Amino acid sequence: MANAVMPDIRPSNPNFSSGPCAKRPGFTLDALSGAFLGRSHRAAEPKARLAEVISLSRSILGMPEDWRLGIVPASDTGAVEMALWSLLGARGTDIVTFESFGEGWATDIVKHLKLPDARVLTAPYGELPDLASVDPARDVVFTWNGTTSGVRVPDADWIAADRQGLAICDATSAAFAMALPWDKLDVVTWSWQKVLGGEAAHGMLALSPRAVERLETYTPAWPLPKIFRLTAKGKINEGVFKGETINTPSMLCVEDALDGLRWAERIGGLPALIARSEANLAAVAAWAANSDWAAFLAEDATIRSHTSICLTIKGPWFTALPADGQAKAAKQLASLLEKQGVAYDIAAYRDAPPGLRIWAGATVETADIRALLPWLDWAAAQVAGSFIPA
């Protein structure tokens, strides 16, 4: 069983939440001192800040020049639902689901939009469905990285270059940590609160020329709320993609988002961000390979996320427990780490199998991941001792 000796080294930053995520290294509130508080977001200087969020995001992500990128309300959820409500219905739709948020998009499409021609391609937590079965003549909706399952699509080879449908990608826990193949995508969404550790409530919506063409040539059969409307008189609302947001943004959150983007630029941009996240996964993988109690939920290393690392608990003491006992033991383990102040918010997502979920995005230091791992062993030994009869 894992070592029961309490470690003497603690993570410098115990924040391993999967959203909102850890702030960038060295962050203090002084970084927000230049925020335009009490100013209209439509005034010249605040609007320039919003435009800078867009331009820096485009630059760091390597987004093609002919794509449009805008700041939209309601975090990644708002961005995804804006795309679903505005674009779907012109063709049949395939929905790829392998974690809870993808399941949520499937619910929106099937039960709320009630599209008559929708196929749900699903897989259990830790696996991917058959991506080869996606029909290029249909629109496809999918998450690039499953925040709640620790599974990612390995590439975009399954998306046809000559597709007729649109590829709509929820990339909220992938953007800034994984290379996105823009030529294979048509809509990409994310929020500020994930890989760069920004504050919540604001989303980003990126549209390819093909997506813009759909917006300008197709009118959904259902009414669109004001915050979803991307066109006026049959033409794209260009202002949304220049910092003229549909609703009022928080200029404090805007300043925070810029701080994260400027940090990303300083350390070397996207390659550096990816390398930091991959180093975190490598540290966990080296530890898990020798663990007698923990394993990756995603058994296939080629689809394993390096931002949201999901672990299951193995061992006779755990597998012998009934389902409710396993859930209790996993929660007890996460709670023990929180009480020790070494890891906050790392319990598995409520719909996922019992276990742990460790955020390992670019703002997390690998030294903190390495310091955390002995604590996981210690906590597992304590919990196992409480379930194993004397």
Layout of secondary structure:
Elements: H1 44-61, E1 68-73, H2 75-87, E2 93-97, H3 100-112, E3 118-122, E4 139-143, E5 145-146, E6 151-152, E7 167-170, E8 187-191, E9 202-207, H4 209-217, E10 231-232, E11 235-236, H5 251-267, H6 269-288, E12 294-296, E13 308-313, H7 316-319, H8 323-339, E14 355-359, H9 366-387
Parallel strand pairs: 2-3, 2-4, 4-7, 7-8
Antiparallel strand pairs: 1-9, 5-6, 8-9, 10-11, 12-13, 13-14
Write up this protein:
With 390 residues, this protein is an alpha/beta fold. The protein folds into 2 domains: 29-264, Type I PLP-dependent aspartate aminotransferase-like (Major domain) (Aspartate Aminotransferase, domain 2, 3-Layer(aba) Sandwich), CATH 3.40.640; 269-387, Aspartate Aminotransferase, domain 1, CATH 3.90.1150. Helix content is 34%, strand content 15%. It contains 9 helices and 14 strands. It has helices at 44-61, 75-87, 100-112, 209-217, 251-267, 269-288, 316-319, 323-339, 366-387, and strands spanning 68-73, 93-97, 118-122, 139-143, 145-146, 151-152, 167-170, 187-191, 202-207, 231-232, 235-236, 294-296, 308-313, 355-359. Strands 1-9-8-7-4-2-3 form a 7-stranded mixed sheet, with helices on both faces. Strands 12-13-14 form a 3-stranded antiparallel sheet. Strand 2, helix 3 and strand 3 form a beta-alpha-beta unit. Helix 1 (44-61) packs parallel to helix 5 and helix 8 packs across helix 9. The radius of gyration is 22 Å and the shape is globular. The two termini are 15 Å apart. The model has no long low-confidence stretch (mean pLDDT 97).
